Amino acid sequence: MGSKNKSDAAKGPVRVGMPSDFRIAEVTDMHRQLSAALDVSEIVLDGGAVERVDTAALQLLVVFQHEARKRGNAVQWASASAPLHDAASQLGLAEVLTLPAKQPA
Amino acid sequence: MAKILAVDDSASMRGMVAFTLRSAGYEVAEAENGQLALDTAAASRFDLVLADVNMPVMDGISMVRELRTRAEYKGVPILMLTTESNTDKKMEGKAAGATGWLVKPFDPEQLLATVKRVLG
Amino acid sequence: MSNISIAQFHKVFFEESLEGLDAMEAALLALDEGGDAELVHSIFRAAHSIKGGSATFGFPDMAALTHEAESLLDQVRDGRRAIDKSIIELMLRTVDCLRGMFDRAQSGQPLANGESESLKQQLAAAVGHAGPTATKVAAKPAAASGWIIQFRPHAGMLAGGNDPLRLLRELAALGQLVVEAQLDRVPTLDALDPTECHLGWRIELTGSVSREAIAGVFEWVEDECDLSIEPLVAAAPPPAPAVEAVSAPAGAGGAAGTTRSAAASSNDAGSVRVGIDKIDGLIDLVGELVITQAMLDQFREEFDPSRLAMLQQGLAQLARHTRTLQESVMGIRMLPIGSVFNRFPRLVRDLSQKLGKQVKLELVGEHTELDKTVLEKIGDPLVHLVRNAIDHGLETPEKRRATGKGDIGTLRLEAFHRGGSIVVEIVDDGAGLNREAIIAKALQKGLIKSGEGISDDEVGELIFQPGFSTAAVTTDLSGRGVGMDVVRRNVVDLGGTVAIKTRPGNGTTFTITLPLTLAIIDGLRAAVGDECYIVPLVSIVESIQLPAEAIRSVTGGGELFRFRGEYRPIVRLHQQFGCTNARQNIEDGLVIVVEADGNQVGLFVDELIGQQQAVVKSLEANYRRVDGISGATILADGSVALIIDIAGLIRLQSRRKAA
């Protein structure tokens, strides 16, 4: 599945949006999406719509960030919702996820 | 609001659980044994399953084991409704894939507190 | 939430417990005559339910007694103790004692008495309890100014429904947290199973919190993680009392409880909620009946022929009211099929996503009403057919495009009335049945001898054969061990039929025809010798008189007749059921062509007497099961007529043919 986006590499950033219910039931699908996104050099993560999130989802993001850093992809956040912020802080993962500054509610 | 599946062969126990949860605004489906619960769980996805241990046709432990083999029930909280004499049943339930338990007898307040604890 | 009264469930609890005691008693008596282990299980379950219920519904004396009984039964169940006369005797006395307790509970008297207390002690003695079990003395909680918690979930914890995020939030409610995530075991993205947990945490919790409170948070996951809880400062315990964790229930739930309670309903299997207007309608009708009866009563004393018109009018009125009353009472059991249809949008969405198919679901006729019993039992067959349609019927968008269809497949569920029946159709515009695959499978299973000249509808019939699995490759979706034969059997058990029409390349239609109610059927009364039988109207295709030469005898003793271009077997009811004085010559009687499960046979009877509605009485409950008979009814003259089970009769016939 990874090779599908190779031709997009020149086209600039790929955007990966997260579902509003971003929990264990969705992580397999997101795992696929994020893996595919690594074929593009610039990746923009959008967690603005996330209302519910769990450890499985945050762990996936952590592993993804590791991988992206290792491969030299540029990862940026378009936005991160308050629930995403709160959960990441609670689990001690806000820093490693390089979340953007918390937006006022 | 979250959807909960209440599984118990006792109509009064099931009724109490369902009534309490519906009163708190949850959507509740009922099943009177493990087999029927599996069918119901296949037709619709639930956010929480509350299951009695001893039931005819299919008991709660077998039901949990089967439910956990389904991809859509990975990570979905399943609580066993068990009695204090069933300490080993708690562990058997856990081994089968249950999330936790609620010890009978419980009153509506305890039930709601536990459900809220799990569903957040 | 204290406004929730659980007293409203007392009645249901009493009812089910008394039933449970009856079952317990019957099982104990059967066990006395040398029963099997399953009896012990059912006795245990009954005792267990009563124990759980009585504790929950506020009857501690009853709970205490059943607790001892259950402990004894548990020993028997586990094989730690052999069942003997003395245990059975003790249990039977427990059953009697509990019945007494239920009597007293219903009249609000104290439950325990000398008898129950002594029985409880005897049970406890049998179990081997010297007295109440020793309660563990809890160790004095070591209070500290804080704790260091090392928490490393095992990989499977997330799938088991315990989310570390929830646990940490619960800890945060106890005191101030400093959380440090440990990422040393995190795999690469490729190697990651995202449903497994590879993270760990070191947590500093400050606040005067007891170790028990912390352990309580991790109670459910003790076996699913590596956990250590150490005091933050190894100092002498301060005198401050330990604070137990109290989860403060949010007020929102309580508010919702008061506002929503009106909408809540108990959904017990044995009851139906009836609108007050329906009840009022019934009361009106009964009022009318009383008036009519008073009017007819006038004729009891004396009858003046000049008042014949009035008598006729009265009888007509009585007939009308009876019919309306019957319909109204039936109406109470009727519920809209929408409650079953409602499960499908989610099912269809999930399945189609899983299979990478695009499906538009159309639901038509959700308000069509069905008998409650029928409704409860039709769900599973429908789920199976819908799964099948998405799994095997509808194609992927690519395939659809290749055959010139739109990307999106359509699946329609439609319910409607047709005559005295309810019809539910499951229609897809998919590929239709795979004729070649089905014929190949049927040949392999020996269901047919040759695939030549088999019509599409006959191919459809094949998938209903027992043991015929529909998919060449069994998928995890439909291949759940339930075949189409079970679907058909379930529908037939409800007095209905399933038919299939397939249009290669254009889809498949399953048509389920169900009776409006199971309690009353429309039938034709047929005379056979000295007896009278009811043939359900829904199964009747036609009644014909045949000349003797239209009958063909076949080797093995069977008879065939030609009907609409095909040969059908004849079932002589007088032979089937052993009736005397019946007509023997085909031309003297009548052949009723009936159909079930897509098979037709001709029933040979003496004559038809007329059409009538038959109130179905269970033969099994009153006598015993008889093959080919679905029940009995009482005729106007008080005699009994048997109702013919057409599907069963056809099965008997084909079995005989095969033999």
UniProtKB/TrEMBL annotation, chain A:
Gene3D superfamilies: STAS domain. This is STAS domain-containing protein. Pfam families: STAS_2 (PF13466). InterPro entries: MlaB-like_STAS, MlaB_ABC_Transporter, STAS_dom, STAS_dom_sf. It comes from the Bacteria. Residues 3-105 form the STAS domain. SUPFAM superfamilies: SpoIIaa-like (SSF52091). Coiled coil: none annotated.
UniProtKB/TrEMBL annotation, chain B:
Residues 3-119 form the Response regulatory domain. The modification 4-aspartylphosphate is found at D52. CDD domains: REC_CheY4-like. Keywords: Phosphoprotein. It comes from the Bacteria. The keyword Phosphoprotein applies. This is Response regulator.
TrEMBL record, chain C:
The keyword Kinase applies. Keywords: ATP-binding, Chemotaxis, Kinase, Nucleotide-binding, Phosphoprotein, Transferase, Two-component regulatory system. The keyword Cell inner membrane does not apply. SUPFAM superfamilies: ATPase domain of HSP90 chaperone/DNA topoisomerase II/histidine kinase, CheW-like, Histidine-containing phosphotransfer domain, HPT domain, Homodimeric domain of signal transducing histidine kinase. Its EC number is 2.7.13.3. Residues 520-655 form the CheW-like domain. Residues 2-105 form the HPt domain. PROSITE patterns: CHEW, HIS_KIN, HPT. It catalyses: ATP + protein L-histidine = ADP + protein N-phospho-L-histidine. Residues 267-518 form the Histidine kinase domain. The modification Phosphohistidine is found at H48. Involved in the transmission of sensory signals from the chemoreceptors to the flagellar motors. CheA is autophosphorylated; it can transfer its phosphate group to either CheB or CheY. This is Chemotaxis protein CheA. It comes from Dyella flava.
